[in-house]
From TrEMBL:
Protein name: DUF423 domain-containing protein
Cellular compartments annotated: Membrane
Pfam family, one: DUF423
Protein family according to the UniProt entry: Belongs to the UPF0382 family.
Transmembrane segments: 44-61, 68-88, 100-120
Keywords: Membrane, Transmembrane, Transmembrane helix
Superkingdom in the source lineage: Bacteria
GO cellular component, one term: plasma membrane
Organism per entry: Pseudomonas mangiferae
Primary localization: membrane
Length: 123
């Protein structure tokens, strides 16, 4: 489990930085300021949760637990649904893709709640 979350953290971090650079240099002249801000929000949440996945992976090396696995899975799903839907929305212009974004946000909340529960049980 730890290896999977560390690999997901590395992938999310790498692609987050790449997508941020792509937006700053390649999309600035192609997207409206509003859509560029939406894309940036996706990058920001992806990078924050790449660090969360890194923390889950490192913690799983020492404290393997089912709750921790759920936290990591929820963070990964959150990145895919939240950030992915924002990227797809801004690049395609299909506004209905924004309906997926809150599902990703809920996945982030589940991940943080599970991480908190795991920390509570450490005593």
């Amino acid at each position: 489990m730890a290896r999977l979350f560390l690999l997901l953290a590395a992938f999310a971090g790498f692609t987050g930085v790449a997508l941020g650079a792509f937006a700053a240099h390649g999309l600035r002249s192609r997207l409206s300021a509003e859509y560029l801000a939406v894309f940036h929000t996706g990058v920001q949440y992806q990078l924050v949760h790449a660090l969360a996945l890194l923390g889950v992976g490192l913690l799983a090396l020492h404290v393997p637990s089912r709750t921790l696995g759920i936290a990591g899975g929820a963070f990964a799903v959150g990145v895919l649904l939240f950030s992915g839907s924002l990227y797809a929305l801004t690049l395609s212009g299909i506004g209905r893709l924004g309906m997926i974004t809150p599902i990703g946000g809920v996945a982030f909340l589940v991940g943080w709640a599970c991480l908190g529960l795991c920390a509570w049980r450490l005593a």
